UniProtKB/TrEMBL annotation:
<feature type="coiled-coil region">
    <location>
        <begin position="46"/>
        <end position="73"/>
    </location>
</feature>
<protein>
    <recommendedName>
        <fullName>NB-ARC domain-containing protein</fullName>
    </recommendedName>
</protein>
<dbReference type="Pfam" id="PF23598">
    <property type="entry name" value="LRR_14"/>
</dbReference>
<dbReference type="InterPro" id="IPR041118">
    <property type="entry name" value="Rx_N"/>
</dbReference>
<comment type="similarity">
    <text>Belongs to the disease resistance NB-LRR family.</text>
</comment>
<dbReference type="InterPro" id="IPR027417">
    <property type="entry name" value="P-loop_NTPase"/>
</dbReference>
<keyword id="KW-0677">Repeat</keyword>
<dbReference type="GO" id="GO:0000166">
    <property type="term" value="F:nucleotide binding"/>
</dbReference>
<keyword id="KW-0611">Plant defense</keyword>
<dbReference type="InterPro" id="IPR032675">
    <property type="entry name" value="LRR_dom_sf"/>
</dbReference>
<dbReference type="Pfam" id="PF00931">
    <property type="entry name" value="NB-ARC"/>
</dbReference>
<feature type="domain" description="NB-ARC">
    <location>
        <begin position="178"/>
        <end position="255"/>
    </location>
</feature>
<dbReference type="GO" id="GO:0002758">
    <property type="term" value="P:innate immune response-activating signaling pathway"/>
</dbReference>
<keyword id="KW-0433">Leucine-rich repeat</keyword>
<feature type="compositionally biased region" description="Low complexity">
    <location>
        <begin position="145"/>
        <end position="159"/>
    </location>
</feature>
<feature type="domain" description="Disease resistance R13L4/SHOC-2-like LRR">
    <location>
        <begin position="521"/>
        <end position="889"/>
    </location>
</feature>
<dbReference type="Pfam" id="PF23559">
    <property type="entry name" value="WHD_DRP"/>
</dbReference>
Length: 906
């Protein structure tokens, strides 16, 4: 009877469980329907609110607009967090959890109701008096309300030409004026540069471009040389229409000369030179500042020191220096170091208008126009994101793009992918001189950039006001006051224990982007919604910290570059959303298989050995892996798992390989043993390299063809060249290590898709390298040697040599003699000579039977510059002497395109 009772009890339990399952299934269906309908409702309502906001986009005086946009932004973040949480890998929902009493969907439906209420409130929302007041203050940044600022009522500025005459004595204006006059004199001479018609002056706002143009325009030499002159302000033409601008110029011309028609003007505007105006130096900034101050001021060393930080933030921008001087001039002889510190701390408020003063009105307007005139929200977001970095930091462009994508701040459009959209936005910021290029890459793309001091101050305070970032830099906290909005992005730089204390007191449960540099770590477990984590250079990343990071299920971007991390645990498999992992310059020497098997991992950077991958992983790489960039892998005689990845990873496009030769051990892998049976006549190290090279050869062509490969190894590079043959779809090849020779001219001539080639420390002489000029589609060639004397002979480029080359770069202690023959390098636009000396030992001296240009070319070691008709830039070593730099500039003045000559950034 006992057995029957137990069976009945079990049957009852099973029946009860089945009833719960049936109930859970039904509830799941109902809640799924409610959740689906709720999300659809949110989508429609958010579109309506967004449309209402867009309709008011041009109504800058609407006091509700800025605050309403800010609240809409915060609501959008909350909804995004909620949506992503529904499908986060490792989470749990559905009818099974419902049966266990753990279903989260009742809370999800509550959130739907919460979102509905907030959307409805936004649609009907009216500003409070406080919001109106805050909005009015902020709108001072656009100077619409400048008249209400102290001392501005009834005031007006003198006319432009009067101001330019007053400002013509600005420090630093003489040299650019002289250079512009020289260009115009060359154009008017009717000589070799007769085709030059337009000289454009470009640069950051506030540098004095208009002042420079005006003083040149009114210079007696210009008045005498040019009978037709017109001064037209483009902003005065309706809609900045080009035809309207031409009409205005035409009217000015007609005042003094008859017979000129509008249709004649475009013909007189062909050919030109872009003059890039630079900021003034530190000494000139000080001179400009003190020249504006009252003579009664008691100047002291303490006061000089107090001004240094302000002038550094002005970063050579004359208008900024003048604004600071005008503001402090009101203090007269009573100005103290305390006043300087106050201006230093409040500079961002003066620039954005939250602390409006008349002295900063012009610089405030200039900066606000830079921001407001950007094409759209995505461009402004890209600019605001740069406020995460401290002053003077060189921003890695590609890393920033990956962070923006990981955080969801850029979205694809109908023509471009997300990455292309982000690059396009950054290019626009660089073209508009809002962001400064610091390092130019091999394809003329800016690799590193920087926001100059005064624009960074503006951007930081704009970002803080919009609740885009929260900053703790040098223990200084922005914003200073608590806001009603959660922290979304936090940047901590150069902090002490005080910075750590401030960060640990913050509510971080909504944070999406965290950057810590040179500061103590915080509790990562509190940052459950984190998408971007940048810990470059941080210390204290032991097992516990890495374990906590592995619990961040939303994480998409993780940089541990330069940190003290030495091991990545297997718990990393929890990071199913991870797209980028950067462990360069760390002590991590090997990776667990769990990292390689992350399904969304796209970019993997470091210098590590791969684990041995079983054969069955081939299916994962061919079907589920997203891996695009693998840079880079350390291999030895036993090539480990790289062959598997090379053969099967269908999305893999970029690979970097280091080769480390070792002695084979007794416990060789299965791959090693099985392959040895097939190739038992070869040496062990050669055998495994052949296996790898065979897998690389499979990626030469077809849908799985690589785009880029980099090999740092003399042995492996030589073997790679022996495998290299047409057809080959690889577009970029970088080889580092001693090479015996290059492929023959027949092989090279068939490599019609290769457009980028880097050869580093190959030991090849100029004669051996000259075979490269047969490459039909090569666009960029980079030749680097770290030792002296390896480039024997002359680098002679024959007629029709390098038919497609646009950028040629030499980097070595000495530049070989370069001889460019007629018809060679027809498309070359950029010549980059990062060499301190020339192998040509002759000195420059006047020689009557030889033209000055020829003499200079012989002295500089590059013959035939005049034959490069499309050359538009010459980049020189940062430490090259002034005499040779000036010699290059004299040669450039004789060129058709007047190429820019400048030193590389240090």
């Amino acid at each position: 009877m006992k057995g029957v009772a137990e069976a009945a009890q079990v049957a009852h339990l099973v029946s009860y469980v089945l009833s719960k399952v049936r109930w859970a299934i039904e509830e799941d269906r109902k809640r799924k329907g409610k959740l689906k309908n709720g999300l659809a409702f949110i989508k429609g309502e958010m579109e309506l609110v967004t449309a209402q906001v867009a309709d008011n986009e041009e109504n800058l005086e609407d006091a509700t607009q800025e605050t309403r946009i800010l609240q809409l932004q915060e609501l959008a973040y909350d909804i995004e967090d909620f949506i992503e949480g529904l499908s986060v890998p490792g989470g749990g929902s559905g009818f099974i959890l419902t049966a266990m009493g753990m279903d989260s969907r009742p809370r999800e439906l509550d959130r739907i109701d919460y979102f509905k209420e907030n959307i409805e409130r936004l649609r009907k929302w009216q500003p409070t008096a406080i919001a109106s007041c805050q909005q009015h203050i902020f709108r001072g940044s656009t100077d619409h309300g400048a008249a209400s600022s102290p001392g501005t009522s009834g005031s007006s500025e003198p006319p432009l030409h009067t101001r330019c005459r007053q400002e013509s004595k600005l420090v630093g204006i003489a040299k650019p004026k002289e250079e512009i006059l020289q260009l115009l004199s060359t154009a008017a001479s009717g000589g070799r540069q007769q085709q030059l018609r337009v000289v454009s002056i470009v640069g950051r706002r506030g540098l004095g471009k208009t002042t420079l143009a005006r003083v040149v325009y009114e210079d007696p030499a210009v008045v005498e040389q040019f009978t037709h002159r017109a001064w037209v302000v483009a902003s005065g033409c309706k809609g900045a229409d080009p035809q309207a601008l031409l009409n205005r110029i035409h009217r000015d011309f007609q005042r003094g000369t008859a017979g000129t028609t509008t249709t004649d003007l475009p013909d007189k505007s062909s050919g030109g030179y872009v003059y890039e105006m630079q900021g003034i130096g530190e000494a000139e900034s000080e001179s400009l500042f003190w020249g504006r101050m009252s003579n009664r001021l008691n100047r002291s060393n303490a006061l000089d020191d107090g001004l240094q930080s302000i002038l550094q933030k002005c970063d050579g921008l004359p208008l900024a220096v003048i604004s600071v001087a005008n503001h402090l001039q009101g203090q007269g002889h009573n100005m103290l170091v305390h006043d300087c510190k106050h201006v230093d701390q409040a500079l961002g408020n003066y620039l954005t208008g939250t602390d409006a003063t008349r002295a900063f009105q012009k610089i405030r307007r200039a900066l606000a126009e830079c921001y407001d005139n950007l094409p759209d929200h995505v461009h402004r977001t890209c600019l605001l994101s740069t406020s995460m970095f401290p002053k003077g930091h060189q921003i890695n462009r590609k890393s920033l793009v990956r962070k923006l994508i990981a955080e969801g701040l850029v979205v694809p459009d109908v023509r471009l992918e997300k990455e292309d959209v982000a690059h396009h936005c950054l290019n626009k910021l660089i073209d508009h001189n809002i962001i400064d290029p610091i390092l130019i890459g091999v394809n003329s793309m800016v690799k590193r950039c920087q926001v100059h001091g005064i624009m960074l101050e503006f951007t930081v305070h704009k970002s803080v006001y919009k609740n885009f970032v929260t900053l703790i830099h040098n223990d200084d906290h922005l914003p200073k006051r608590r806001t009603p909005y959660p922290i979304r992005r936090l940047s901590i730089h150069y902090g002490t224990t005080e910075s750590t204390r401030l960060a640990r007191e913050m509510e971080l449960s909504f944070i999406r982007w965290l950057m810590i540099r040179s500061s103590d770590l915080i509790d990562f477990k509190a940052c459950r919604l984190l998408r971007v984590l940048d810990l470059e250079g941080c210390k204290g990343l032991g097992k516990g910290a890495i374990g906590d990071i592995c619990e961040l299920l939303f994480l998409k971007y993780l940089s541990l570059r330069g940190s003290d991390v030495n091991k990545i645990t297997k718990k990393v498999k929890k990071l199913q959303c991870l797209e980028t992992l950067d462990i360069r310059e760390t002590q991590v020497k090997s990776l667990p298989i769990e990292i390689i098997m992350l399904p969304r991992l796209v970019y993997l950077f470091g210098q590590f050995e791969l684990p041995h991958l079983p054969n069955e992983t081939g299916t994962f790489f061919s079907e589920d892996s997203s891996l695009h960039t693998l840079a880079g892998v350390v291999i030895n005689n036993d090539c480990c798992g790289l062959e598997q990845i090379m053969v099967h990873a269908r999305n893999l496009k970029k690979v970097k390989i280091w080769y480390k030769k070792t002695t084979p051990s007794n416990n060789s892998t299965f791959q090693y043993k099985s392959f040895r049976k097939k190739m038992n006549s070869q040496k062990p190290d050669k055998m495994d390299k052949s296996l790898l090279l065979s897998s690389i050869e499979e990626r030469f062509t077809g849908k799985k063809a690589l785009e880029s490969i980099s090999i740092d190894s003399s042995d492996l590079a030589k073997d790679f060249l022996s495998f290299l043959k047409a057809p080959c779809a690889i577009r970029s090849i970088k080889l580092q290590g001693l090479l015996g020779c290059l492929p023959d001219s027949v092989t090279l001539s068939r490599l019609r898709l290769l457009n980028e080639l880097h050869l580093v420390s190959t030991g090849l002489g100029c004669e051996a390298l000259s075979v490269l000029q047969i490459l039909p589609c090569l666009v960029y060639l980079n030749l680097v040697e770290s030792s002296d004397g390896l480039w024997g002979g002359d680098f002679i480029v024959q007629c029709d040599g390098f038919p497609s080359l646009q950028r040629l770069r030499f980097q070595a202690p000495k530049l070989p003699k370069v001889d460019i023959r007629q018809g060679a390098l027809r498309l070359l636009t950029s010549l980059q000579l990062f060499c301190l000396e020339s192998s040509v030992t002759m000195s420059y001296f006047p020689f009557p039977l030889m033209s000055e240009t020829t003499q200079l070319e012989l002295w500089l070691g590059v013959i035939g510059i005049s034959r490069l008709e499309h050359l538009n830039e010459v980049l020189l070593h940062s430490s090259l002497g002034d005499a040779k730099v000036q010699a290059w500039k004299r040669i450039a003045m004789e060129q058709k395109n007047l190429p820019h000559v400048k030193k590389q950034s240090k």
